[in-house]
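SEVERITY: medium
COMPONENT: batch folding queue
REPORTER: lab tech (J.R.)

DESCRIPTION
The queue accepted two submissions in a row. Attaching both inputs and their returned structure tokens so the on-call engineer can compare them side by side.

ATTACHMENT 1
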Amino acid sequence: MLKRILIAPILFYKKCISPLLPPSCRYYPTCSTYMIEAIKKHGAFLGLIMGCSRILRCNPFIRGGYDPVPDHFTLRRNRNPKDESSYEQQELKK
């Protein structure tokens, strides 16, 4: 229930607000997608913390790149991500 409450405004942002703004996320998947996945994978509290940490990392002074939600809780970038092509294939199936 709490997960749905936290995910609803993110989905609203992705569908209604984000298309009106120029693309600015330096990571793939985007920060909003990352937060949704983190909430689903790690629960409402830890997922929200991970998502907020990711948003704070997403700035012009960072290189960015592929950074999926890790399997364990961390506030740092995922240093050993799985193959990016497998992630893209999963996204195409959705």
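ATTACHMENT 2
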Amino acid sequence: MRVFRFLFLLAALALAACEMDSYEKGTGGYSLLTAEFVEAHTGARGTVDYVMTDAGERLTLSPAPATEWASAPDTVYRAVLYYDRAGGGEVRPRALSEVPVAAVQPSASLDTVVTDPLELESAWLSASGRWLNLGLVLMTGEGGGSGARQTLGLVCDSVTASPGGVRTAHLRLYHDQGGVPEYYSAKTYVSVACGQVGADSVVLGVETYGGTVRRAFRLSEQ
């Protein structure tokens, strides 16, 4: 059974510095390893037994890692895997971090679309064409109160069609700072399943500290 965990719009996304360790830059503990965005499959015991990379390569993990967020058996999760080659067709996992999958909601279904600024570091389609990936930098910090939390999601404002019949979904990134202090930056990734967009192409708008940034992607060519 292929099931993905979704970060639904308005679901809480807690951001803490310790949760960003897997995305460190420089010469940290993971800097000399191979990193891949993957679909991670759990076996009957709730451990990740293999992954499919965005390039379509199946990697068997030895030993099979167990995580709190990927514990349901026979389930597929979106993740970033750091590994080195173990030989014999297996890889040795060094770190496995969950990547939230954002659901696309129609903007008309919401009373307000919140677009608090953040930074868009990167946006790209996976080699398989299954995923639109976003690298985001959010401002975060402690001291915002027990209910302070940031929220991420995607909303669709409209779907238009060109004279040639190409359907384009016009999306916006939903971001609610949610009372979280903006003391320091934290990087996170979010993926969008292209199959749920329901269009041939996407124009994505992201509100940043420098203004609105737009990125366009032709999904049908992937």
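NOTES FROM REPORTER
The radius of gyration is 18 Å.
No errors were logged for either attachment.
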